[in-house]
Design brief:
heterodimer; A: Rhopdopsin 7-helix transmembrane proteins; five-stranded antiparallel beta sheet; B: 120 residues; alpha/beta; five-stranded parallel beta sheet; 5 helices; 42% helix
Chain lengths: 719, 120
């Protein structure tokens, strides 16, 4: 192989070096869109150019034929790389996958095989001869039939790439048009150069195509790296703008649509394939003529518009802005539309909900108000105003809540809510005295809740109720209770005094009478003795009457208190009935008492009162029995109560009198009562004492046959 | 045999006289008309029985009873308490040997006094 390099090859070498450098440089910056296929394309072009230079420098046919073949490796793959670049550059990167790339490479690989085996079949080049023209030794190739297959395929790929790029360029906004034309020319250069070379349109000595690619490369690289906006524009157009949910319409200075995305077409109600580009804005927005009119001269603005009715109603938020060039001349307008139907519906629901709650709050009978963190009122419902006598909400708004508290309670109230704030107690209830506009004091039962946002207290929400009436009733009750206690104490003191004042003189009467009777002051005759014993008997009766009356009075005044002492039950009953024996015998009655073995030895209770109950019942039985007997039975029907039964064979009590028999001073048989002295308090006292002991007294009686009183007392046994 | 010694503490002169007459046949009797004098006498005397009225001018019958119960020297002294107040009688029932609600029958008092004095 022998070469002859000449000076006129230097521009070609420079172009080749530029292509190689561009390929390498682009590879280093391969993150840019289209950079990888572009880099590969430039390296392939570099191989093409270098091979071509060597082909040109070769001086014999064999050398030239070799480099021709080598050159075609670049030639056949350049259109494939170009197509890959065009696809990626116009946002179709994913389309050119490995499978498709392989598919596109099938024919070029066949071409290479055919070229390298051309000598045996002459399908690519039918004939190759050498000629010398203008300092170059050139090959004159007579192309074979396959050459045209290769050419057609290559032009097809290049055309497709070209169309993709031109289409993308045409969609660019108007202000980029200058650059667009420049890029377009750069892209078209190799195509034009190739056509010139292949079809010998202008008589140039060498094939300019690879060097035209260098020009393209420089232009495109400049576009790729110098103007980043340019390399993004087609992608943004197709991916961002078409893909975005917001509708976008771009108008030129003549108010004609120069770009409209799918979302905008959908919003306006056009199908996505309807061509809107170039139409006047009034036609596109024909359904909103007033909108078009209103924003005719507005530089920037926003407007919410609705479309449709009822369920199908949609809301859009439109943003208008104007585009200016560097000379401040308007070059167009951008209309962005956003579907805000969901937000609108949410707003409406919120408004409805707010209105509903407001209605509840406004009509509530409870006092509802809000305060900020300083305790200033931020809201008050009509109930607050009514309670405090204000007319308008503004009369209380902004006022510190403490102003509305009675002066003497301000300090305490302030402390309560400061504590709530500091301790972050979420809810408190207090009763606070408020002062109304006219000076009235109003008690409010107040629930106060802290309002917190992200852990920060932002205010208080208060719910109150006018409890003045309750408070007054309560106070009145306290006073009544104190008065009752006082009255009760006074009664007790009075009873004590009466008791003392009645008993003391009785003591003298009884004392002196007994001393007289006992002849302490000298011997008495029979008449005198009888008189003395009459005094004794009367004073004893009087004493017992005083005791009964005082007992009754004490029971009525609820001032009787029960003792709880341990006592022997059996001996108490025996002792109580011992005197009764004699009393019964005096009337010619039989008296018997039966104490059941079930009775406990000792119990807790008020022995004196239990004894009084027994005596009263037995006394009563004897009093109202003319003949027959009186009997007492005591037993424990179970471990928890004591039963004492007093029966007689007396006159009995008529059924209709059963309910009155325990009332004080009530006497059913006046004739018998006349025979026996008594105030008629015995049964009443017994009943009241039994009640006081949480017991029960019952009566069974039949007129003429006798009566049975049964007392049931709860039992507390000794441990 | 010497008669048992009884101290009568009663502010009502009539009752005081009645009790004195009732007991003087069988007992050695000294009388006080108020609580203060009674306390002073009890510092020197150790009566077998004190007939004590609860409601007294000066030191109250309750205080005198407490004093008797706390004085070692008076450990053997029996107390017959007399009162016109049923309620007070109840509360002091356990401290006194016998509690009598006024009006007191002299015969009953004499019988009780004789009974308790013979118990020792």
């Amino acid at each position: 192989m022998s070469y002859h390099f000449t000076a006129n090859m230097i521009p070609l070498v420079i172009a080749a070096l530029i292509s190689g450098a561009l390929g390498l440089y682009t590879w280093q910056n391969r993150r840019a869109i289209g950079a990888i296929p572009f880099s590969i394309m430039m390296l392939i072009v570099y191989e093409w150019e270098i091979s071509y230079i060597f082909q040109l420098a070769g001086i014999d046919l064999a050398t030239k034929a070799f480099w021709d073949k080598a050159m075609y490796i670049g030639v056949v793959f350049t259109p494939v790389a170009w197509l890959a670049f065009a696809l990626e550059y116009t946002g179709r990167k994913t389309w050119m996958n490995a499978r498709r790339l392989a598919m596109f490479s099938v024919l070029p690989v066949c071409t290479i095989i055919i070229i390298f085996t051309n000598e045996s079949h002459g399908l690519f080049w039918a004939h190759q001869t050498l000629s010398t023209q203008g300092g170059f030794i050139l090959t004159d190739n007579i192309n074979g039939p396959y050459f045209w297959i290769h050419a057609a395929y290559s032009y097809t790929l290049i055309m497709i790439g070209l169309i993709l790029i031109v289409r993308a360029l045409l969609r660019w906004p108007a202000q980029y048009r200058g650059q667009m034309i420049w890029v377009l020319l750069a892209t078209l250069t190799p195509f034009i150069a190739n056509i010139i070379s292949v079809f010998h349109i202008v008589n140039v000595l060498i094939d300019l195509t690879p060097f035209a690619f260098t020009v393209t490369g420089i232009g495109m690289a400049f576009a790729l790296f110098r103007y980043r906006l340019l390399d993004i524009a087609p992608i943004a157009r197709d991916i961002v703008i078409e893909g975005m949910k917001e509708g976008m319409v771009i108008l030129d200075a003549g108010r004609r649509v120069i770009d409209i995305n799918r979302a905008a077409q959908h919003m306006i109600g056009l199908s996505s394939d309807q061509q809107m580009i170039g139409k006047p804005v009034a036609e596109v927005f024909a359904r909103w003529p007033e909108l078009v009119e209103r924003f005719r001269s507005v530089v920037e603005g926003e407007q919410e518009v609705s479309d449709g009715e009822g369920e199908k109603q949609r809301w859009y938020e439109l943003t208008f802005s104007t585009l200016f060039d560097e000379n401040k001349t308007m070059i167009g307008r951008v209309i962005m539309g956003r579907d805000i139907t969901d937000r609108k519906q949410a707003e409406r629901r919120l408004q409805e909900s707010e209105a509903r709650f407001r209605l509840i709050v406004e009509n509530a009978s409870d006092l509802i108000f809000g305060m900020d963190i300083h305790g200033c009122i931020t809201y008050a419902n009509p109930a607050v105003l009514r309670a405090l006598g204000y007319e308008k909400e503004v009369d209380v708004l902004g006022r510190e809540y403490l102003d509305l508290v009675t002066p003497e309670m301000r300090h305490k109230t302030k402390r309560i809510y400061q504590h709530q704030l500091v301790s972050k107690t979420s809810n408190t209830y207090n009763e606070v005295p408020a002062v109304a506009m006219d000076g009235r004091e109003i008690w409010i039962g107040l629930s106060v809740q802290l309002i917190q946002e992200a852990g920060q207290v932002t205010g208080f929400q208060a719910l109150g109720r006018d409890i003045t009436a309750i408070k007054q009733a309560y106070d009145a009750m306290l006073i009544a209770r104190d008065q009752a206690l006082e009255a009760s104490l006074a009664k007790t003191q009075l009873l004590s005094k009466v008791s003392h004042e009645l008993r003391s003189p009785l003591g003298s009467i009884l004392g002196y009478a007994e001393l007289l009777e006992q002849s302490a002051f000298g011997q008495l005759n029979e008449k005198q003795k009888k008189a003395a014993s009459e005094i004794i008997e009367s004073s004893k009766y009087l004493a017992s009457m005083v005791n009964e009356l005082l007992d009754e009075a004490q029971l009525r005044a609820n001032t009787t208190t029960l003792q709880q002492n341990l006592f022997a039950l059996r001996s108490l009953i025996e002792h109580a009935t011992s005197g009764m024996d004699i009393l019964a015998q005096k009337k010619g009655l039989e008296f018997s008492s039966y104490l059941d073995p079930s009775l406990p030895q000792e119990i807790y209770g008020d022995s004196r009162r239990i004894r009084q109950i027994i005596i009263n019942l037995v006394n009563n039985a004897i009093k109202f029995t003319r003949e027959g007997r009186v009997s007492l039975r005591a037993w424990c029907p179970n471990g928890s109560c004591l039963e004492i039964q007093v029966s007689d064979t007396g006159v009995g009590i008529p059924k209709e009198a059963h309910s009155q028999i325990f009332e004080p001073f009530r006497q059913v048989h006046p004739d018998i009562t006349h025979e026996n002295r008594g105030a008629g308090l015995g049964l009443s006292i017994a009943k009241q004492l039994v009640d006081l002991m949480n017991g029960k007294i019952t009566l069974e009686s039949e007129l003429g046959k006798g009566s049975t009183f049964t007392v049931l007392l709860p039992l507390r046994k000794a441990d | 045999m010497t008669k048992p010694f009884v101290l009568i503490v009663e502010d009502d002169p009539k009752l005081n006289e009645i009790i004195t007459i009732t007991l003087e046949a069988d007992f050695e009797v000294e009388t006080c008309m108020d609580g203060y004098t009674a306390m002073k006498r009890l510092n020197n005397l150790a009566p077998q029985i004190v007939v004590l009225d609860l409601n007294l001018p000066g030191t109250s019958g309750r205080d005198i009873l407490t004093h008797i119960r706390s004085d070692e020297r008076l450990a053997k002294t029996r107390v017959i308490l007399t009162t016109a107040d049923g309620r007070q009688a109840e509360t002091l029932n356990n401290d006194a040997d016998i509690t009598l609600l006024k009006p007191v029958s002299p015969m009953q008092l004499k019988e009780l006094a004789l009974r308790i004095s013979s118990m020792d």
